[in-house]
Amino acid sequence: MLGRAVDDISTGSDSEYSNSWISWFLSSKGNEYFCEVEEDYILDRFNLTGLNNEVSNYAQALDLITDNLDDDIQDELRGALDVQARLLYGLIHARWIVTARGLAKMLDKFKRVDFGRCPRVLCQSQPLLPVGLSDTPYEKSVKLYCGRCEDVYSPKSSRHGSIDGAYFGTSFPHLLFLVYPSLLPPKSGPVDPTPTSRGIENDSSRKSRRVKEEPEISEGIGETASTASVALKAERYRPRIYGFQLNETAKLQRWQEAVRDRQIVRLEALEDLS
Length: 274
Prior knowledge:
Helix 10 packs antiparallel against helix 11 (247-273). 41% of the residues lie in helices and 5% in strands. The protein is elongated. A hairpin with a 5-residue loop joins strand 2 (143-146) and strand 3 (152-153). The chain is mainly alpha-helical.
């Protein structure tokens, strides 16, 4: 599924491609979640440290992104380079959107509700933010994070659903709300039609609730499976910034897990009696 994201043929024209690869890429169908990475950021090699180990033909892929690729490159090689250029741009994009300028650009898209709204009824159409479940390419596709219910959802569009989650990273939405705390949505009550600046919410309104990855049918769970065993297998989404779990969320989740464990013990005791 992730391979389809890099293999899809763009609808952009040759003239658009020749003028600017980045403009061509951003205007392609299915790439609406991406923002433009400024050229000076891409040209600063410090910002690209380590990416040469992630991308084949790194130097040529970078030349293609910055429109410095030799025009004499054969079409067959250009097609292969285009796949690597998409990967390289996506990985650069994940680094860019957690910078001050990158966050500002993604904030504009968030305010325009470019990423859609939460499908949960009680979230009252809260705007969503893209998030990756892994920072490693080709592992997980992009999901959409709701700051109100703190759950993650799959995009409605198959084109968006095939985007690699590593192109947005695991930290982005949580860092955005950390930098712009006034945008953190309340856990109850109406939601503004568009997310605009509000006063700082009470600490209690910022506490995280139980969240999980999109539901999947677990093997072996049937009529004979116990409630306790099902509860033990349940997965949950854990918001992290650069791999570290958020402090308030971590404390709340430890308390929730302690309550869950006590409930599981009671369920097991009831099942033993029956």
